[in-house]
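Aggregate trends can hide what the representation actually does to any particular protein. The sequence in question and its structure tokens are set out directly beneath this paragraph.
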Amino acid sequence: MTLESALSFFVAVFIFSITPGPGIFAILARALTKGAPACLMLALGMTMSDILYLVAACYGLAVIATHWSELFTFIRILGACYLIYLGWKMWNAPLDLTEANGEKQSEGIMGFIQGFLISASNPKVILFYIAFLPTFMDLTALDNMDIALASFLTLVSLMSGLMLIALFASKARRWFKSEKAVNRLNKSAGSIMAGAGLFLITRH
């Protein structure tokens, strides 16, 4: 992979990471209710799923992936149902945000799984890494070092984009101090999360 193609790929993945979609909706919802640090494992889960698609495409598994439509459909519906459940949970969350502190221990693992499911079930991710990846690099000429570099660039680029969104959303939490405002925040975040789930169900 040349320096020019590596830079082009990094920029493309960064732009891809901040475009609206279920992943961004999930990041926004969590950042608004729990702050940017709580989005780290969620973003990491999304990124790891993306890297798996990237490696699969690089090793020429795109042809095999075209026969996995039923599996992708199952994963998409599973991820969508989980997002809708989380949206319902946020909608009915307690007004005192400090009560959620006891969930931090399991939040990391569940956040990672949630992020992984969101990315794995998002048709946009499948399309990008399987259909559009060859426009950035010649898959037939890649060696293991190129794939490792592409994976690293994807990790840094995606995490940077997702956490940047989380930081901006987290700053908006300062505007929500009263119980009435927190109630609106919970319902807004829940609506965003459930909307992301509905988006996944209706997306083909």
